[in-house]
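Figure 3 (text version): structure tokens given as input.
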């Protein structure tokens, strides 16, 4: 997500900024596909209620490529409404499996990004079971759309955990686009958002 901060400092659109600094055609292809499929509008301003952000990575710098675009809203509460991703894992031996793996990774990352945290008091861990440890529920699941760029002539790289980092980055960037402020600590709770905006409860 720091790439978005650099783009802002350069006065550039986040997608255009990434493409400007990438020569790898496969990296560029996933960014371009995700941006196009999500309806990305270059330089679009937020209306103060909704936002969109992009995240990109090549997993561990040697495996699958993925770009993720997240759309968020702040009304009535902060939530992710849509996620569009483009993934390239080389030869997709099981394309449907890659799509499912990517969707699952996106949802797991959304859960980490929006709500998961081990909680402590002054003596012990207090989130000790599924009743007290928060995870994403069905009510928080957004529309998810994954586009596979299959490359039969390339070696298979596997889907694995490819979506996890870029999904979190895309959501953080979308929140910053909506609010104009950065929240740099996960999960992105109401309290942290309020604190970043400089408001008191």
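Below: residues designed for each position.
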């Amino acid at each position: 997500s720091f790439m978005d901060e650099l783009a802002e400092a350069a006065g550039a659109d986040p997608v255009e900024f990434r493409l400007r600094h990438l020569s790898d055609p496969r990296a560029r292809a996933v960014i371009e596909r995700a941006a196009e499929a999500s309806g990305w509008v270059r330089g679009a301003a937020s209306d103060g209620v909704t936002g969109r952000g992009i995240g990109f990575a090549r997993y561990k710098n040697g495996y699958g490529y993925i770009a993720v675009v997240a759309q968020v809203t702040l009304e009535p509460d902060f939530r992710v409404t849509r996620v569009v991703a483009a993934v390239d894992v080389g030869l997709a031996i099981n394309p449907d499996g890659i799509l499912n793996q990517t969707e699952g990774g996106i949802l797991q990352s959304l859960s980490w990004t929006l709500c998961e945290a081990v909680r402590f008091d002054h003596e012990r861990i207090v989130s000790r079971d599924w009743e007290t440890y928060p995870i994403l529920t069905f009510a928080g699941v957004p529309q998810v759309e994954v586009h596979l760029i299959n490359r039969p002539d390339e070696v298979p790289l596997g889907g694995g955990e490819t979506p996890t980092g870029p999904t979190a980055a895309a959501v953080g960037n979308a929140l910053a686009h909506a609010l104009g402020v950065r929240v740099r600590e996960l999960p992105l709770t109401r309290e942290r958002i309020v604190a970043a905006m400089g408001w008191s409860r």
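The chain has a mean pLDDT of 94.
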